Amino acid sequence: MAVGALAVLGSSPAMAIDLSSSKDGQVHAYSYGTNTRVAVKDTKQDGHPVYVNYKRETSGEQYALWNKSGSGTTMTSGAGGAIYVIQACVSIDGWPDKCDVKREG
After folding, report:
1. Residue 47 — left, alpha, or beta (φ > 0 → left; ψ -120 to 50 → alpha)?
2. Distance CA 70, CA 56 (A)
3. H-helix or E-strand containing 40?
4. Of 15, 20, 33, 53, most Cβ neighbours within 10 A?
């Protein structure tokens, strides 16, 4: 009986962890719930575009989702494999971009 219970528990999907990343009050990125989508919000009226670097479990490659629509707007990715790394960034012309540390779930 215990072996059957272990088999059922072992086959259940992994628990999702909410991921959140922000930088200097200018950008907020997040992936919640099942982590199949990531979103990036521009949170400061400063003229700088923002983006989120992220990785999906299905490929392990790093992707970027940009938000060039201005303060108060949010861009959301399409659904896909579970997201396990996010990093919110602010694009700065002529300077290195400002990024949060990578947040892993």
Report:
1. left
2. 26
3. strand 39-42
4. 53
Sequence letter at residue 14 = A
Task: List all residues 6 or more positions away from 63 whose beta carbon is below 8 Å from its beta carbon.
Answer: 53, 54, 55, 56, 77
With a CB cutoff of 8 Å and minimum separation 6, the contacts of 2 are: none
| Domain spans, the chain | 16-104
- pLDDT tens digits for 49-61? 999 999 999 999 9
CATH number of the structural domain 16-104: 2.60.40
- Residues in the chain predicted with pLDDT less than 70, given as ranges, are 1-15
Full-prediction pTM beyond 0.90? no
Token reading at 2: 């215990």
- Of 33, 32, 52, the C-alpha closest to 41 is 52
